[in-house]
Amino acid sequence: MGMALRTWSLPVAGFTGVTVLVVTSGLPGSAAVRLMLGLTGMGVVVLAWLGMRAAPVRELYRIAAAWCLPLLFARPLFSGDVHSYLAQGLTAARGLDPYRLGPLAALGADSPVTQQVSVYWQDTPAPYGPVWLAISRTIARVAGENLLVTVVLHRLVELAGLVLVAWALPRLARRMGVSPGAALWLGLLNPLVLWHVVGGAHNDGLMMGLVLAGPELALTGLAEPLRLVAGLTLLTVAANVKIVAAAALCCVGADLARRWGRTTGRGVLVMLGVLAGFVLLSLVIAAVTGLGLGWVGTLGDSAGLHSWLAPTNQLGFLVGGLGMLAGASITSAAISVTVHLGAVVGAVAGAGVLVAVATGRWHPLTGLGVVFAAMLVTGPVVQPWYLLWAVLPLAASLRAERARRPLVLVSVAGALLLPPVGGSVPVLVAAYLGAAVLVAMVWPSLAKERADHSPGAVRVGV
Asked: Does the record's keyword annotation contain Hydrolase (predicted)?
């Protein structure tokens, strides 16, 4: 009995941390106190997570389910994007075009849904594919303008995506010689998944579930046409949720070109065949949903917001700041140049990865993780939850501990330092300092549990 309690003390600590985060997110009163308590809960979750690297697969599944449970009915965490999803779904449900009209124009300024949408997005048409808009439209028809029901239903969709992640990740890891438990720990149980896929209800959860399930079916079904077609279909559906998922289709297509294309010419034909299938099925999806292809024209709209996390924008701001010191107002021009430069570098990097996959030097899953990482470095828009694009496939494909360690560090930094928690600098400083003190008070007991689990903590399958 004592051993059972000790074994479960880290999971219970993590569950408590998640619960504290959920409860404090809705507390009235001092913003600094509320933020401090929330950060304390987050810190406890991260410490508990770090201590469970050697947990068995079945235990990881149970822990993931338990930690997600308090988040299901919480208010949206760290982002109000789910309200944008509802606004876009309501627009489509009312027979209007969400690819031409933003929430303000479609629903009006008096709509309670419009009022919940960030001012940055109120005039922005939907940038998502027709699969996602069809899902949001269905939810809008069921929930109307009920914000709580809408959030819960969107979370259920993302949980379905996480079920796909939970199914595909250990299978992919096993084929790559990686411990399934290590992959699930770094992928499924990652605090970024809790904060942003479940807490924030971002559609990246559904996208990544499809992105991982697709290769598991396609690359293991070369002798089974139905399995191969199912895998490619899932990847096409993923790209019709968010277009960035097309990178997975390209990586799988490059691997198929290697396997089936005995010559360069035949390899190119295989790749073109995969892309033709993607276009054809996308046209069918556009027709069946009735949403058309208007989303193609909105894909670049979010790039104009100058995401501060994007390295290309940071470089542009730096150049612009230097220009201001010299008396020149060049910030906008500098950002434009650095963003376009990033696009070129990203395209070259992506092409290089596809060549590496097509020639057999890289596995397509590793290639996919690297392509997504390149998007984060060279793209114009970066959000904390985008880190999962790279972390999830690499969690199942990187075997060496030294290669996996940066993924852990990025996840910890993304979970504790990058959430858009808001607040003035004094409030943030006070909250982080207070949280550090509170976490330090529980650290000794968590550290002891981590020590008890340490013999297998740094081992991954090789």
From this structure: no
